[in-house]
Specification:
The chain is mostly helical and 40 residues long. The protein is built from 1 helix and no strands. It has one domain. 95% of the residues lie in helices and 0% in strands.
Length: 40
């Protein structure tokens, strides 16, 4: 039980990090699309 709980705690920060990176990439991609439309 404690071992599994420890693994969850260890993995949670990386999950949050992955999610924030994913959101950042989505924003970056959306901004690039907007720029392409502006300068098209």
């Amino acid at each position: 039980m404690t071992k599994n709980f420890g693994n969850i705690n260890k993995d949670t920060p990386s999950l949050i990090l992955d999610f924030s990176i994913y959101l950042g990439l989505a924003k970056y991609r959306a901004r690039n699309e907007n720029l392409k439309q502006l300068y098209a």
